[in-house]
Amino acid sequence: VQLVQSGAEVKKPGESLKISCEGSGxxxxxxxxxxxxxxxxxxxxxxxxxxxxxxxxxxxxxxxGQVTISADKSITTAYLHWSSLKATDTAMYYCAxxxxxxxxxxxxxxxxxxxxxxxx
Amino acid sequence: QSALTQPASVSGSPGQSITIxxxxxxxxxxxxxxxxxxxxxxxxAPKLMIYDVSDRPSGVSDRFSGSxxxxxxxxxxxxxxxxxEADYYCSSYTSSSTVFGTGTKVTVL
Lengths: 120, 109
What we know:
The complex is a heterodimer of chains A (120) and B (109). By secondary structure, chain A is an all-beta fold. Helices cover 0% and strands 51% of the residues of chain A. Chain A contains no helices and eleven strands. Chain A is globular and about 40 Å long. Chain B has 109 residues and is mostly beta strands. In chain B, the strands form two sheets. In chain B, strands 1, 3, 4, 7, 8 and 9 form a six-stranded mixed sheet that branches. Chain B has a three-stranded antiparallel sheet with strand order 2-6-5, with no helix packed on it. Chain B has strands at residues 9-12, 18-23, 35-40, 47-50, 64-69, 72-77, 86-94, 97-100, 104-108. At the A-B interface, strand 5 and strand 10 of A face strand 3, strand 4, strand 7 and strand 8 of B.
């Protein structure tokens, strides 16, 4: 199982951004993929999760309306999208896959992380 | 939803056992057996150590064990080793979402 994320991004406030997470080595459509934020020097925050098989998506209340999670099963890739970035979106973002095909079990496989820096 | 509460730091000497607590509510930790624990070394992605309260993924040392009582889950590390020095996070399912704990820095003296 591998999750390979897109590279680091430097953006200005107000810009849009979509980062990606390509899954391989397993059945992409039968496991959920989660996104987790880690702000500099801070803890982990669960953002949301998507089931690529049918694009069923659940969001943390803290992130609902702030980001959009999507997936393209034809290229086994999940995405995290912002329409208008803020400086407070500066963080490391991880995609990750649960150990089983339940969305709520432990997250066993992690991408390498994508560092997003938002600064004017 | 609020983050689960963990002690900011726990320390122990090599060979000792330590326990990290993770306190939630009757809406998360107390309601479901979807409690997980993660280890994170600086600059690295988190690693799953325990899932479903007390199950260990393949390859994780049996020095790590998990339990739950009421609204509080616990991670015990026995036979503490230098390589166990890291940040540890718990998580729990709650209302079609997941919430992480505040994190605990484990120091091996």
